[in-house]
Amino acid sequence: MEPELRKWHTDKRVALAIKNLKKNCFAASYAEHPRDAVELIMKMIPAGSTIALGDSLTFREIGGLRALEERGDPFLNPWEKGITREESLALRRRAFTTDFFLTGTNALTLDGKLVSVDGLGNRVAAMVFGPKKVVVVVGVNKIVKDLEEAFRRIKTIAAPLNARRHNYPEPLRPPCGDSGFCSDCVPPHRSCCNTVIIEGCSRDRERITVIIIGEDLGY
Ligand code: SF4
């Protein structure tokens, strides 16, 4: 497809998603380039704020982790190399009381809903309640028509790639991480066991900011 044609189509989808996110009381904006998104996020966070990361490949891909490190303020990273599982779990719990929680999602519907899947549940739980503000970065590849398409995306793309990335050992190893396809497995193998739909921020308007980025990012 010609780039201008593709851009026209993407712009239309982004505009509709943003309009509906705002209707659902999210704060929402578009950053054409990852660097613009990172700049936006860094400006949103006042100096001295407490910050935590949810597991987000998109946030890493756009250079968010590097920007936080350069910024110098301390932040909680449960995926920091060298820490024990107990330390990681403690950081995930502390994330609930931070000022900012920075993460991604697995699908954004055109009618402005976030659909996220999580093995342990700390990421989706913190998106729903806890941190004062949540920033969700999402590539245009994750914009889907509706919930049905979102669930399909999770089973066919997000969960298998995530399982592959984490390379879980037995007995937790999901079959899709080896086969590439969902076989509707059951616990303890099932990693896509917490799927959360956030339909809006009506009880805490604009608590969640969604930043759509004009590139394919994460899964
Ligand atoms: S149900 Fe099992 S096989 Fe299917 S996507 Fe989830 S973890 Fe993978």
The major beta sheet can be summarized as:
5 strands, parallel
Query: Radius of gyration, Cα only, in angstroms?
Result: 17 Å
Spans of at least 5 consecutive residues whose pLDDT stays below 50 are: none
CATH homolog superfamily: NagB/RpiA/CoA transferase-like
User: What's the level 1 CATH class?
Assistant: Alpha Beta
Q: Helix/strand/pairing class, anyone?
A: alpha/beta
Percent helix among the residues?
Answer: 25-40%
Q: Under CATH, the topology is which?
A: Rossmann fold
CATH architecture: 3-Layer(aba) Sandwich
Total count of domains:
1
Count of β-strands: 9
Distance between the termini: 22 Å
| Net shape | globular
The neighbouring-strand order within the major sheet is 1-9-6-3-2
In round numbers, the mean pLDDT is 96
Order of helices and strands: HEHEHHHEEEHEEHHEE
Percentage beta strand: 15-25%
In this entry the ligands are: iron/sulfur cluster
Number of helices: 8
